[in-house]
């Protein structure tokens, strides 16, 4: 494998250690990052909004926000950033890295917890650690069409029913005057404990070779 | 000094005269006469084979040189995706996630739902997974933008324009490249320019002459011969080496020929093998002159700029032309813009609404010899033609596919997609749902709504099942 100048390579190696991607994957992501930002150093929301495939996605707003959310950067801070650099970009993407084979169970649990944390943060927009009914309804409405097929009333009904089910699962039967605040992270984990997040929330990279210089046939 | 100059002058003039004569005779014998009669000496194929050998040598040298010096060689970004996208549909994926997610407590409350979906019919938190993952996938790897950059090569063809990381690897290679530049710009380019001018000039003059003849079989016959001859000269002007497959499926009168579009040269490539009626907008200048003289010899369909917007008018003129069985088949490029020849984008349905037989044609260029894709936002037409004429050659394959007809239960859009799939399959191109207009604009909101509608249908459908039980 050829090596280029030493500066970026050290940076990439640090990133590779920190996030668990291989150096090749980081290089590919760097190319993609530069492509998205059109060769600038920092990524802003409008750069992501330009991705055509993303326009199809009903929850693209939440996905884009996830990139600028400080909670996902591994820091204890809260709040949003206006623009991010390549390190933050890769850090967010590392939530979607498939776990290496032969990972210990403890490690798997941690990985799963982190992925769930990412999803939780995506729902919990006001950073208070609880997904309230309103926040949840927000997500539901984005996912559903604003057209004739489902009216606002039906959307509300669906949200309420879903929240009720969640409450049933986690808290058990509630007294009539008890007020259900919202879904905490522990309850979130409990609901989704059976889903194989480790496999469902992954992006698989193809194996890239360097120097695939072939002669024409 | 005076008396010494004149014998030199004479000698010089004589030499120039002789070389010009030789030059023109060679040109005539080897290029123009075969073009007129449609035969080929096989010189171009020999040229192609020699070039390939040279490229192989050059690439091996580069590899060796890069290893020695530890340079980062121009690593080709493979055109395949960076990530493996699973081809599951929205419905399948949601079912799977919900099946995993329904815990016993939830099952209890949802057991009243009978019906096709085995999982709980409520809106599940896990549904966001699917969209989240898809969203991140599209941020990392986007299908659309890949179509609009020129295809990147895996070996170097001695054109610096296709190797963005050209370093001085070895002096032999640089010499070879320099020699290549001299040959291409000093010898091939003037030759091709001469041919191009001859071809176009002959086309204009001869078709104008034929225009004076009365309509009839003689006129059609002559016009066909003249068109073919001039297009063949233009093909040689580009040193285009074309292989035609399945010529038995060539478009017949009264049909519509559709093809994928990579560059304006597509027209010349197709028209040098058969006669078509072209469709297009009237331009000014040289293009306009050519268009006006062509239409004198045989009926092409040219629109004024103002008429182009009027879809009904366009459709009517095309249908009228098609109904007349004595007129030539129409040539249309339904993508509407130039795509970089790795995929086929959405076909506009207008041409498929006209009731007639459609003859699909797939054109695939070999990028090793010259990049044929016209990136109209990067290069103008003249710049593009110059690049074409200073490449080594244009090598392409043309496949004539069997004719297709619109079936009873299909609408125009479905028919268009069917034709598109056939063309993509034959040419080895990727079949995409996207609109070529995205080169310039953004995604229409309709698409986002489509996804939303599909998702809501799944939800509402299962809701109904629940309430019924």
Give an overview in words.
The complex is a heterodimer of chains A (217) and B (469). Chain A is mostly helical and 217 residues long. Chain A is built from 10 helices and 5 strands. In chain A, the strands form 2 sheets. Chain A has a two-stranded antiparallel ribbon with strand order 1-2. A two-stranded antiparallel sheet of chain A has the order 3-4. Chain A starts with 5 loop residues before the first helix and ends in a 12-residue tail after the last strand. In chain B, helix 1 (2-37) packs across helix 8 (217-237), helix 7 runs antiparallel to helix 8 and helix 7 (171-210) packs across helix 10. The longest helix of chain B is centred in the middle third of the chain and has 40 residues, at 171-210. Mean pLDDT of chain B is 73; it is low at 72-80, 101-122, 149-154 and 464-469. At the A-B interface, helix 2, helix 4, helix 6, helix 7 and helix 8 of A face helix 2, strand 1, helix 3, helix 4 and helix 5 of B. Strand 5 (204-205) of chain A pairs antiparallel with strand 1 (83-84) of chain B.
Task: Set down the secondary structure blueprint.
The complex is a heterodimer of chains A (217) and B (469).
Chain A (H helix, E strand, L loop, with lengths): L5 H14 L3 H15 L5 E2 H5 L10 H8 L15 E2 L1 H8 L11 H19 L6 E2 L1 H11 L8 H20 L11 E2 H7 L5 H4 L3 E2 L12
Antiparallel strand pairs in A: 1-2, 3-4
Helix pairs in contact in A: 4-6, 7-8
Chain B lengths: L1 H36 L5 H27 L13 E2 L5 H12 L2 H7 L16 H14 L2 H5 L23 H40 L6 H21 L2 E6 L10 E4 L5 H7 L5 E5 L3 H13 L3 E3 L1 H4 L2 H13 L6 E3 L10 E2 L5 H4 L4 E9 L14 H9 L4 E7 L11 H16 L2 E2 L13 H24 L1
Parallel strand pairs in B: 2-9, 3-6, 3-8, 4-5, 4-6, 7-10
Antiparallel strand pairs in B: 8-9
């Amino acid at each position: 494998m050829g090596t280029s100048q030493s500066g970026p390579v050290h940076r990439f190696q640090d990133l590779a250690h920190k996030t668990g991607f291989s150096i090749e994957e980081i290089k590919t992501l760097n190319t993609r990052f530069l492509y998205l930002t059109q060769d600038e150093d920092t990524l802003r929301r409008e750069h992501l909004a330009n991705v055509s495939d993303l326009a199809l996605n009903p929850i693209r707003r939440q996905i884009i926000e996830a990139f600028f959310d400080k909670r996902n950067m591994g820091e204890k801070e809260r709040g949003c950033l206006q623009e991010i650099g390549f390190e933050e970009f890769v850090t967010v993407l590392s939530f979607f890295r498939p776990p290496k084979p032969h990972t210990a169970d403890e490690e798997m649990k941690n990985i799963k917890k982190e992925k769930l944390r990412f999803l939780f943060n995506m729902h919990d927009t006001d950073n208070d650690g609880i997904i309230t009914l309103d926040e949840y309804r927000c997500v539901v409405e984005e996912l559903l069409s604003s057209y004739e097929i489902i009216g606002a009333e039906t959307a509300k009904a669906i949200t309420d029913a879903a929240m009720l089910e969640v409450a049933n699962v986690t808290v058990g039967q509630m007294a009539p005057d008890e007020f259900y605040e919202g879904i905490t992270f522990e309850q979130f984990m409990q609901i989704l404990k059976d889903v194989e997040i480790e496999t469902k929330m992954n992006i698989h990279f193809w194996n890239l070779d360097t120097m695939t210089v072939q002669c024409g046939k | 000094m005076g008396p010494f100059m004149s014998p030199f002058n004479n000698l010089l003039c004589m030499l120039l005269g002789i070389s010009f004569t030789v030059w023109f005779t060679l040109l005539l014998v080897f290029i123009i006469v075969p073009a007129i009669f449609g035969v080929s000496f096989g010189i171009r194929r020999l040229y192609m084979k020699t070039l390939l050998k040279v490229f192989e040598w050059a690439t091996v040298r580069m590899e060796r040189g890069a290893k020695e010096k530890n340079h980062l060689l121009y690593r080709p970004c493979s055109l395949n995706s960076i990530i493996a996208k699973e081809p599951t549909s929205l419905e399948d994926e949601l079912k799977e996630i919900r099946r995993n997610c329904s815990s016993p407590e939830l099952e209890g409350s949802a057991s009243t739902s009978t019906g096709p979906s085995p999982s709980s019919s409520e809106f599940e938190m896990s549904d966001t997974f699917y969209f989240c993952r898809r969203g991140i996938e599209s941020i990392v790897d986007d299908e659309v933008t890949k179509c609009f950059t020129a295809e990147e090569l895996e070996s170097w063809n001695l054109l610096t324009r296709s190797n963005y990381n050209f370093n001085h690897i070895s002096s032999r290679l640089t010499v070879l490249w320099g020699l290549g530049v001299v040959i291409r710009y000093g010898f091939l380019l003037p030759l091709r320019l001469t041919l191009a001018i001859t071809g176009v000039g002959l086309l204009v003059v001869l078709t104008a002459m034929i225009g004076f003849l009365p309509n009839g079989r003689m006129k059609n016959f002559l016009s066909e011969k003249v068109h073919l001859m001039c297009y063949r000269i233009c093909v040689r002007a580009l040193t285009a080496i074309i292989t035609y497959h399945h010529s038995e499926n060539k478009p017949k009168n009264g049909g519509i020929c559709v093809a994928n579009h990579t560059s304006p040269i597509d027209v010349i490539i197709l028209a040098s093998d058969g006669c078509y009626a072209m469709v297009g907008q009237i331009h000014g200048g040289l293009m306009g002159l050519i268009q006006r003289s062509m239409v004198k010899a045989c009926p092409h369909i040219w629109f004024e700029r103002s008429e182009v917007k009027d879809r009904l008018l366009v459709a009517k003129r095309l249908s009228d032309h098609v109904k007349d069985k004595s007129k030539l088949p129409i040539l249309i490029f339904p993508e509407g813009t130039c795509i970089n020849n790795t995929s086929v984008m959405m076909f506009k349905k207008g041409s498929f609404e006209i009731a007639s037989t459609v003859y699909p044609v797939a054109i695939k260029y070999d990028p090793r010899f010259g990049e044929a894709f016209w990136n109209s936002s990067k290069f103008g037409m003249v710049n593009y033609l110059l690049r074409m004429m200073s490449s080594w050659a244009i090598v392409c394959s043309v496949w004539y596919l069997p004719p297709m007809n619109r079936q009873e239960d299909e609408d125009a859009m479905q028919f268009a997609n069917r034709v598109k799939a056939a063309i993509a399959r034959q040419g080895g191109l990727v079949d995409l749902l996207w609109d070529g207009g995205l080169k310039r604009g953004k995604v229409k909101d309709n698409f986002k709504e489509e996804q939303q509608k599909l998702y809501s249908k799944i939800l509402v459908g299962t809701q109904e099942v629940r309430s019924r039980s």
